[in-house]
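Slide 14.
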Amino acid sequence: MQKVHLVSLGCPKNRVDSEVMVGLLREGEGYDLVGEPDDADVIVVNTCSFIQPATEESIETVLEMAKFKEAGRCKKLVVTGCMVQRYGSSLEGELPEVDAFLGTGEYHRIRDVLEAREGALPRSHVDVPMYIHDEMAPRVNSWSQASAYLKISEGCNHRCAFCIIPQLRGRLRSRTIPSLVAEASRLVEGGVKEINLISQDSTAYGRDLRDGTGLGDLMTNLAAIDGLEWIRLHYAYPHGLPEGLLEALANEPKVCRYLDIPLQHASGPMLQAMRRGVTRAGQERILERVRNAVPDIALRTTFIVGFPGETDKDFAELCDFVEAQQFDRVGVFTYFPEDGTPAAELDGQVPEDVKIARQEHLMGLQAAISRKKLTAMVGQVVPVLVEGHAEESEDLLRGRTETQAPEVDGQVYITQAPADVAIGQIRPFLVEQAGDHDLVGRIIG
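Slide 15: predicted structure.
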């Protein structure tokens, strides 16, 4: 029995890949997962390479794990994921400590790599990404007792100027509805109450199947699963939102009135330079359509500041847009000139201190908007998913409302609760205090 330690870096999509690898190793005999690298015979690092800082973190993590191999207990070090897909076999010379490399479309080969005799297989397994796991993959949910991610598709057909994801993940390939329902049903049987649908471009789900498959039908079929309480959609590209999705958001009780819709900017010149295929007016029409269909929806979006050529006027227009739209949640990122993307070659690169100042200013605007919205909830009773004890104190429980997504939004702090409250329950929560992003109150009834 070999003991394996797996380190997963990056986004929830990468986490799902890691969970599939864990399931594949647990399937059958021969491997036991351990929580500490110094207990492991084998260490696997699933890397991120979305931007250069993520690549640097991945390299640092690999080198840190290599120390356990030098110490003698660990016999094999395997690196998988986006960094491998991006740099391919060139990593063999850069990281001689690593025994095998698997790209984003090869992680299902993990057992083959670990069980192969030395020299029997190439060190690097990198090809055009084609694989996406299905319901037969023995995935292990490693994140939360009550919540899980469900990858509905892989890859992206857009060519945004700042993004390297299509190079790392390939073109769009969607899973079938029966496959997703089967995997979701297993997760619910394991105690999961909330399913978070993820992909690189969720709006495009099903288009490649060319059989009418779409988000509306997917939501309806998932909602029929007994025991599943909340279904939440992430990463919806703004234009092309299917009508079936809006109908599900409006009419299906299990579908959270929440939409993660990354917009990236509001200035016309910036949207054009970013190759987003939409104008500010177009985005406003899209948001109006969503709000008309689902008046009580909570909208989350993300923006990039400091994109090449961004002027004070462009940034002022973005701030005006945020003030006008009153989003519920906003993430703001500073642009990084990523090698291999068209934007990295553009003139007018913005100084780093200007990027940071703009990020702080925009986040300050959004904090005031968020505080106002959350303060208006004081005195209301809303459903809350209980997730466990708060990191700040064992005397507090923590949870999330329907309008708070895991990891990226705020949370609720539960100061009082009946004795029968348990992790995974959805209970009525009286809001008593509000901050910029979090709520404080007690469970009643």
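Speaker note: The mean pLDDT is 93.
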